[in-house]
Write a structure and sequence with these properties.
9 helices; four-stranded antiparallel sheet; about 290 residues; alpha+beta
């Protein structure tokens, strides 16, 4: 009889242990889900006092005082965010993370950041691993994937491949800012000349395209193309590449030596080296307009 009760007790204990393990696994899963849905935010100073009061943890001198401190802290955070954004030119629209692995010694998260720099929209995804050893912790990035929505994305392809291999986020954002600046320089220059010389300059693809055309109304068929691309090297170097292309009718070529027409590109490159992009392009526009007026 005693052996039978002992066997029943043992089975009951095993059943209770299985239920406990199941509950523990459920708690871990719920904690992980909470980490995925809510990013941990740490506050200090006035913000911490205000939130503690709002949560009923402690009294800090009345509701009006707390709300005043909370508003002041929020304004300081907003001002700091504006300064940082103006400084680096990177505007973040969203940032999400999902915990893939969590233990006392290691945490792995999937991070997705999206935003824009000037007109360039980007999305960056990567795995962030944090390993703890005693008082020290080390963070590493893996599985980096970068997507950019740009007009002339082919100039970025080699660079993006290199960044994904090296997992160098700092290089990516620094190069993106420089590229956006050169991109905006070209846009402003094209738009300026179109407004200044509307009868000569046209932008078939808009001011954000790579090509500007020059065509005098009294010289039909004779067109000059200013092709301005922004090249990005695999190492992150950014440089403009500007060329002058010509489209001259066969009839016009019979009136002018081919060498003179063919030398237009070389002459333009010489102007670029001496005067810079804006002045060199304006010299060509004035030549096409057959006028010395500014």
């Amino acid at each position: 009889m005693a052996e039978k009760m002992s066997e029943e007790n043992r089975k009951e204990v095993e059943m209770l242990e299985a239920q406990i393990h199941g509950l523990q696994a459920e708690v871990v899963a719920l904690k992980r889900q909470q980490q995925d849905n809510h990013m941990d935010i740490y506050f200090k100073g006035q913000m911490q006092d205000a939130l503690s009061y709002m949560c009923g943890q402690k009294h800090v001198g009345g509701k009006e005082k707390v709300m005043s401190k909370l508003k002041e802290e929020l304004e300081e955070l907003e001002d700091d965010l504006k300064r940082q954004t103006q400084l680096n030119g990177i505007y973040l629209s969203s940032c999400t993370r999902k915990t893939l692995q969590s233990s006392d010694s290691k945490m792995v998260q999937q991070v997705c950041v999206s935003g824009h720099c000037s007109e360039l929209v980007f999305q960056v995804e990567f795995q962030l691993s944090e390993a703890k050893e005693g008082q020290r912790s080390e963070r590493t990035i893996s599985d980096l994937n970068v997507v950019i929505d740009a007009i002339d994305l082919q100039n970025f392809s080699s660079f993006l491949s290199g960044v994904e291999e090296s997992r160098d986020l700092l290089l990516f954002f620094r190069t993106l800012r420089t590229y956006a600046d050169r991109f905006d320089d070209r846009c402003r220059t094209f738009q300026h000349f179109q407004e200044k010389y509307p009868s000569i300059v046209s932008l078939p693809g808009g001011c954000r395209s790579e090509v500007m055309t020059l065509n005098h109304p009294e010289l039909p068929g004779c067109v000059l193309f200013v092709h301005w691309s922004v090249e990005v090297s695999r190492e992150g170097g950014v440089a403009p590449k500007i060329n002058l292309l010509t489209k001259i009718p066969e009839r016009a070529l019979q009136l002018f030596p081919s060498q003179a027409v063919g030398g237009a590109a070389e002459a333009f490159h010489s102007l670029l080296r001496i005067l810079g992009p804006e002045a060199a392009i304006e010299s060509v526009i004035r030549a096409v307009s057959l006028s010395q007026d500014t």
